[in-house]
Amino acid sequence: SPNPVFPPEQRMVLLACGPFTPSDGVAFEPLSDLLEVVARDRPDVCVLFGPFLDAKHEQVESCQLLGSFSDVFRLCLRTIVEGTRSAGSQLVLVPSLRDVSHDFVYPQPPFPCPELPKEDRARVLLVPEPCTLDID
C-alpha cells in the first residue's frame, strides 16, 4: 500500500526587529524581555533583524557610550547567543543599515563573529541583508 502523506512538521518561528535598547539608555531591557519569551516559548527559529546598536540612539549620536561600538555590539551578541542557548533555538541575525558597528553598504555582508563559542556555531546563522531564508 502507498505510504500515507504526513503534513510537514510545524515549526515555531519568532521574528523580532531592533533596536533592542530603549531610546534613553543602552541597558538592553527590551532584549532581556525578548530573551525571556524565547526561553518560555522555545521557538525552533529566531530571526532577529537589526539595528542591534542603533545609529539613531541618543548615546550613540552624542558619543556618550562607555565602550566602543564594536564592544557594545559584542556584548549584545553574547547576550543574545547565551540567552537563547537553553531554548536550543536556531538563531538568525540580520544586519541593518543603522547598525553603527557594521558596514554602511548595501547589500550588507553578514556580521563578522570570530569569537562565537564553538558549541553555538551550528545554531547561529549570520546572514547578509538582503537574504533569502529557507526554513526546512
From TrEMBL:
Top-level taxon of origin: Eukaryota
InterPro entries per UniProt: DNA_pol_a/d/e_bsu, DNA_pol_alpha_bsu
Family of the protein in this entry: Belongs to the DNA polymerase alpha subunit B family.
Gene3D superfamilies linked to this entry: 3.60.21.60
Protein name as it appears in the record: DNA polymerase alpha subunit B
UniProt entry tagged with the keyword Nucleus: yes
Domain spans labelled DNA polymerase alpha/delta/epsilon subunit B: 13-136
Any GO CC annotation of this UniProt entry: alpha DNA polymerase:primase complex
Compartments it resides in: Nucleus
Keyword Nucleus: yes
Keywords of this entry: DNA replication, Nucleus
GO term, biological process aspect, one: DNA replication initiation
Pfam families per UniProt: DNA_pol_E_B
Gene Ontology MF terms in the entry: DNA binding
Main location: nucleus
